[in-house]
User: What shape does this take?
Amino acid sequence: MKIAIMGAMPEEIAPILKKLHNYMSVEYAGNTYYEASYKGVDVVVAYSKIGKVFSTLTAATMIEHFGAQKLLFSGVAGAVSPELRVGDLVVANKLAQHDLDITAFGHPFGYVPGGSVYVEADKKLIALAKEVAQEMGQPLKEGIIATGDQFVANEERKNFIGETFGADALEMEGGSVAVVCDALEIPFFILRAISDAADMDASFSFDAFLETSAQISAEFVMKMIDKIIEQE
Ligand code: ADE
Assistant: This one.
């Protein structure tokens, strides 16, 4: 079995690479992929760079070129739900692209013909995450994640995304990774730790909490990998 572990930024995969100790770097399609054996299972790790296009390329490459059979994403997000605070973990049950807009043709936000507004994440991996959370005594919120090619730092946009998609958190890669994995029939899991509230202070909060929140998410994802291996 080969598992892909993906982030968008170097900070999001650094704690994962640290846990792997030995890995091989492979340059492919303008990015670096790290291949390793972890507790007897093959893993491929990469950060895509920010946004839907780069994350699409990386997810597709991890599956089609490196042969990953499951994909786990680890990173940070802006909170939409007022219940979510910096450092809180949220796992996506479904994801949407909040900036996909052909409403001029009478379609709903997030929809294009041949696609769907939401893509559902793998239910088994979510159930596994709940087990891991319980064992760790770590609160984990399951919710909707909205993705778009914009860093959201204003209440108006955030509220629009919350109201239109029922989103609990927003970020810039999950929705596109979901489309790739769904199309290629690869079970996937998108985990995010909150770094900011997508409000006027978001960029300051993001800079202040990127590393600590990324670490929280990465630690949880590695526990997930342990659990997957245990159950194989
Ligand atoms: N990732 C973390 N915070 C974000 C925000 N406010 N907007 C978009 N992506 C994010």
